[in-house]
Amino acid sequence: MLARFYNLYFDRVYAYVRRLLREAHLAEDLTQEIFMHIHQSLPSYDPTRALRPWVFTIATNKTRDFWRSRRHQETLREVGSIDDDNARPSASDDLGPRDELQARETTRLIEEAVADLPDSMRAALVMRYFEGLSFAEIGLTLGRNEAAVRKRYSRALEELRDVLSRTIDL
């Protein structure tokens, strides 16, 4: 049962955390911590409630805890501006060198723009766009009502549009 749950949710939780943290090794470590916490918290889970928002609530809270931690501050100093190119989606093999370089640069600019969003906007955007959660599920996860989540998501898109329109030909 636990193995099935892990197989069902690991990739999704890891992808969510990876998008929030932008560092593969940190996302791997934090995802493991999240699943340990989930395992410890299973006795308190209310089976009448949806499982997915519960899982993403734990992931969101653990990520917030990490951002506030001394470990995160030390990691920021260590990493500096080093990129993990292996974690980025690669451009299509059908593209020529110039197009591939442009696609990578566009991807980098989008990732940076998403990373620069305020935490609450970034979380709403990632859960909605990448994880496909409904606004109600995101609201449960973030402890906000659906209208507030819709507004955060809308503001996140608007802010991305503004930032990216200055750097990318949209």
3D architecture notes:
- This protein is mainly α.
- It has two domains: 1-81, RNA polymerase sigma factor, region 2, helix turn helix motif (Rna Polymerase Sigma Factor, Chain: A, Orthogonal Bundle); 95-170, Arc Repressor Mutant, subunit A (Orthogonal Bundle).
- The chain contains eight helices and no strands.
- The protein has helices at residues 2-21, 24-41, 51-68, 70-79, 97-115, 119-130, 135-142, 146-167.
- The longest helix has 22 residues, at 146-167.
Large-scale geometry: globular
Contiguous uncertain segments of 5+ residues: 79-93
Rounded mean pLDDT score: 82
Q: Count of DSSP helices?
A: 8
Number of domains: 2
Distance between the termini: 47 Å
Regarding CATH, which class of the largest domain? Answer: Mainly Alpha
Q: Which architecture of the largest domain would the CATH scheme give at its second level? A: Orthogonal Bundle
Order of helices and strands: HHHHHHHH
Class based on secondary structure composition and strand pairing: mainly alpha
Instruction: Kindly report the name of the CATH homologous superfamily of the largest domain.
Output: RNA polymerase sigma factor, region 2, helix turn helix motif
Radius of gyration: 17 Å
Q: Compute the number of strand runs.
A: 0
Biggest sheet: strands, sense, closure?
A: none
Portion of residues within helices: over 70%
